[in-house]
Protein 1
Amino acid sequence: MVSGGDADTAVTDDTSTFQLGLDDLKRRGSALLVVGSVPTELYSRASKQMLGAPDEPRRRLLVLNDSTPLDDRLDVDIQRTTEWTRVVRYGSLERSAAASPSPSSAVPSAVDACERRVSGGLGKLGAALANDVTEFDTLAGGLSPAELRVAFDCLPSLLSRYDRDRVFRFLHVMTTHIRSRNGMVHVWSPGEREGEVNRLFEPLFDAVVELDVEGSEARQRWHLRQKDVSSGWFPLES
């Protein structure tokens, strides 16, 4: 079972190989592709687990769309300070003056002080995320394995604005940078694992996490690509 982003056991034909593979992902840093034709709420549940429980000392970076409520993506008990948690709201186009928030509304509240907006092209987004990762590393005095947890929700938005080759290169650079700090990043890509887009991007990732609903039960299945081993289906905890 995978809980709080940390692995205990999962059903597989070779449990020891699977467990060793999960431990290796945490130790050396990893990138997870999360797929499935499921409601967004189920991905949010899985992502919260991958980001780690509130009592775990994690540095969390979330890259969200404007319409996503932060409370849907982050446990309310997690400390929302820039030292521990940062949220990037990404929009690929600069806002017009009329659409920009007024100075008073732009002042963050105590709750959303960790949030900021990044607009512009992929280069600006990549630079902003790299800066956050570097600052987390500095604040930590060197990040411990799996201390950095990154959730990236914006892949569908990127694909609606940029060609797949540019998005592929962006994901390659981002995942490589996070791995270099022994961090764990998960990227949400709705749709089945066998879909054309997910087959294109899968080689960039160390593991694929499938989400599914059977009857009234949400479930997940992990595929560790380097070890060439998969778990069986097991429940997605609330």
Note: The chain has a mean pLDDT of 87.
Protein 2
Amino acid sequence: MRNDDPARPTPDSDPLSAYIERFASVLIDSGIPRMPARVFAALITEDDGRLTSQQLSDRLDISPAAVSGAISYLTQIQLVTREREPGTRRDRYRVLDEVWQDAIFQRDAMLARWENSLAEGVLVVGADTAAGHRLQESVVMFQFLRQEVSRIVDRWQERRTALRIEVAARMEAASRAEAASPAEADSRTEAASPAEAARGEGDTQSGD
């Protein structure tokens, strides 16, 4: 399907499509290839974070092959998971709610590998050499970063728990308000009926 198809919303006419493209641009600037960036942006803006290959193809106006390539990249860097759509043989792709937290944990694992490799370098060049001092300082830096990241993640998990309780309370309140609205409208109508009837009688009497 062409982007100029009048039956298809364009980014200019569809705020969500426009946002997906803007967010994808931010991801592209961060080093993620264009197509995976667009697919990830589409998934993360879906209510349940799930879309099939066909849905992604339709939403982004791209070929199934482009979706497949993007998904391969995103699953490889563990930003997206693949699962089977219930009752079918089709796969669907999902962004987890903890995607950013998981990305930080992955970065922690990478920092640990760098730290270990640098520590090995200290032994190779000698701890009392200029190169050894440089490598050792890098080791200490990565140790510090990993400790701080661990503390930040612990604090975030506490904040996330409180945030989810807050969001659930707001959604429940909104649901109750929506459910009460028709009943309130009916009660207002019933309350207005006697008054309207009285006004009607008064108009009749004055007409007489």
Note: The first helix runs from residue 15 to 29.
